[in-house]
Amino acid sequence: MVSTKKGQEMYDIARRLIPGGTQLLSKRPEMFLPDGWPSYYAAASGITVTDLDGNTYRDFAIGGVGATVLGYADQCVDNAVKAAIEQGSMSTLNAPEEVVLAERLTDLHPWADMARFSRAGGEAMAVAVRIARTHARRATVAVCGYHGWHDWYLSANLAKDDALDGHLLPGLDPAGVPRGLEGLTRPFQYNDIDTLNSIVSGCGDDLAAIVMEPASDSDPDAEFVKGVREIANQTGAVLIFDEITSGFRLTTGGLHLTLGVDPDIAVFAKALGNGYPISAIIGRREIMQAAQNTFISSTSWTERIGPAAALAVLNKFEKEMISDHLIEIGQRVKQVWLEAADHTGLKVAVSGLDPLAHLEFLGDSAPAQRTLFTQEMLGRGFLAGPAFYAMAAHMPDDVADYADACREVFGLIASAASTGSIEGRLRGPVAHSGFKRLT
Ligand SMILES: Cc1ncc(COP(=O)(O)O)c(C=O)c1O
Predict the structure, then answer these.
(1) CA distance to 69, 201, 334, per residue, from 47 (Å)
(2) Which residues line the pocket of ligand 1, CB cutoff 6 A?
(3) What's the confidence (pLDDT) of residue 439?
(4) Which of 65, 183, 370, 436: CA 20 to 30 A from 26?
């Protein structure tokens, strides 16, 4: 059993000083292993993470929440960032890297002519929606999937506070979002074109934008996405693909490149900077120009580190066939789960794009099984949970070691499940699976 005492103590202090304990819901220790998760890192490199207590783990969880697609402290990206720092990361003048990055991203996505940059994913989506509403001179947004914390998105929960359940974590309250936004953002379901059609017929001629990830948790459906494209064409709505998580996984660029369906705007973040903050909104010239008719502007969007990191990421993707590696590692991990389940009789479901794989434990005690999995894998030197985000730094030998540990732990869970003693094996409470207020 590993001791994560220092991490626990730090988190106790955090909960007193920081409402909710962390800046990102998905990094809350309660989401993984309440009272046991290491919570904080002292150092991270490749796939290795060292916690405050000096334990090291191989990260088979969510790799910097999907941001560090190459691996932690990647040398090429870090060298580019160090050079940017040495040349001065900020000045009264602009960073030329942003112009080069705009060129590179529009070259990779030939349908796009222009780019704007911000630093986080959610804010980039807010930029995209503002541009779309300005261009279309309409207000209603049809939305599918998760797109961040901003008012335009969370307002979907004003009409019915569970409208976005299934799109984002259940239980998110739109408190603080002005009632005046009610009805302006309306959710539809991936793979169910009728749910989009009913928004179209219900909003008159007011549809400004259709916002979606080109793939949901399961494999992308090119026919569905083509159908959405047609509705955007018919209604004049701006089609926005949120590629914040799907981008730079299956190919060098947006996943939509593999579907043969072009949006009007695409948004990237996470993988684009390998953990350094940078997000991009790329789009067709006539739509992007609407950014000039409204006010979208921020000091922090002009620093040099973000675009310098992104250029280094793009270079590495183009030189090293990174996507092929991510797909292969993801497929291997999915196989590991299926084989371990088969071998031990444990009931699981495996889904997701290969580089963004999901593992679901089935049955009544599923949340406790998931927690026990994380607890036992931690003891074997792995950060692990119900999702695995592949990084370029994951090597087949790492997967082989992970496979041995998974087989052992699945066996342990299966035997505990057969005797109804899963919770008895947990050293703390069951992990949260949705948003909960922390006291
Ligand atoms: C598809 C998608 N959109 C938007 C966001 C929000 O990005 P950020 O957390 O950088 O604000 C995320 C983050 O997980 C995401 O996966």
Answers:
(1) 10, 49, 18
(2) 120-122, 125, 145-148, 213, 242, 244-245, 269
(3) 61
(4) 183
